[in-house]
Amino acid sequence: MLRVAVPNKGSLSEAATEMLVEAGYKQRRTTKDLTLTDAANEVEFYYLRPRDIAVYVGEGTLDVGISGRDLVLDSHADADVVMGLGFGSSTFRFAGRPGVADSVKDLAGKRIATSYAGVLQDHLAENGVDAAVVRLDGAVESAVQLGVADVIADVVETGTTLRQAGLEVFGEPILQSEAVLIKRNGVENPANGLQQLVRRLEGVLIARNYVMMDYDIRAEDVDAATAVAPGLESPTVSPLHRQGWVAVRVMVKRAEAQRLMDQLWEVGARAILTTDIHACRI
C-alpha cells in the first residue's frame, strides 16, 4: 500500500483532510486516530506533526506526505516537492522595530529570532550575511521586546500580531510557502498508488478552480464565442431543435466566469449558466 503522511493538527490539517476526502479517500473520524487504512484505494494514512513529515518521507519510512513548503525546506530532509496543493499559503519575512533595517544586507552582526532556523540560515548564506540565529519554538514576535533578538524572521499573514508587538516587516520576502505533496528525493515511484494520488489531487484542484459553462448561441456566432472562451482544448457544440442555434459547453476558470459571461452575452450567447465541477481528470 501507498503510505501517506498527513498533518495531524495545525493550519494544514483540516484543509489536507478535506482535499483527500474530495479526492475519494477515507479519512479518520477522530483526531485520536494515528493511522487509517483505506483498503479500497490501497492507501495507509499516518497522522503526524507537520514539522516531522518531511523527515519521515526523506528517510523513506513513508512514501509521500503533505506538509508546508517552509517546513520541508527548514528540515533539510531528503525530500522533493511533487506538486503544490493550493492551500496553506503564507509569506516568511523579516520584521523589527521601525528603522532597525531595510534589507537582509543590514542584518550582519545582528541577532535574528525564528522558528525556521534552517530556512533562515540558508537565506543568510545565499546573501552572504553573517548573523546570529536564535531558534525559538513559538511566540517569536516577543523576542525583540524581551531582548532576546534584534529582529525576527517569521510567517506573516495579516501583520496584526507584529504591529501589536511594535514591529514592522522590511526587505523582500524570504519565502513564499504553501502546502505541498512530497516524496523521497531520487525515487520516481515510491509505490504503485502515487500516480493515482497525484491525478486525483490534480482533479480536485481543477474542480475547485474551474466551472462548467453552458450557453446557447447562433451557429454563425460560435467562432466569436470560442475566441472569448476556448476551453481547455475546445468547446463541445451540439445542435438545438431551434434552427440555426447550437448549445455550447466549455470549462472556464472560476475567477473569470462572470467576466466571460458578460463577453459571451455581447457576442450573442443566451441562457448562459455555470455549474460546479465535483471531480475530473484532465
Structure characteristics:
282 residues; alpha/beta; 6-stranded mixed β-sheet; 5-stranded mixed β-sheet
If you had to describe this structure to a student in words, what would you say it looks like?
The protein has 282 residues and is of the alpha/beta class. Helices cover 27% and strands 33% of the residues. The chain has helices spanning 11-22, 50-58, 69-75, 117-126, 160-164, 194-209, 222-228, 257-266; strands at residues 2-7, 35-38, 43-48, 64-68, 79-84, 90-96, 111-114, 132-135, 151-156, 168-177, 179-184, 210-218, 236-239, 245-253, 270-276. Strand 13 and strand 14 (245-253) form a beta hairpin. Helix 3 packs across helix 4 (117-126). It is globular and about 80 Å long. Its main location: cytoplasm. It is an enzyme of class 2 (transferase). Pfam families: HisG, HisG_C. It is found in: Cytoplasm.
What sort of overall outline do the alpha carbons produce when their principal axes are compared?
globular
Give a short account of the largest sheet.
Answer: 6 strands, mixed
Calculate Rg over CA atoms. Answer: 24 Å
Structural class: alpha/beta
- Uncertain segments: none
Q: Helices and strands, in N-to-C order? A: EHEEHEHEEEHEEHEEHEHEEHE
- Please state the average pLDDT score: 94
Percent helix among the residues? 25-40%
Distance between the termini: 25 Å
List the quaternary state of the chains: single chain
Q: Give me the count of strands.
A: 15
Strand content: 25-35%
Number of helical elements:
8
Widest sheet: strand ordering: 2-3-1-4-11-5
EC number: 2.4.2.17
Enzyme class: transferase
Subcellular location: Cytoplasm
Family: Belongs to the ATP phosphoribosyltransferase family. Long subfamily.
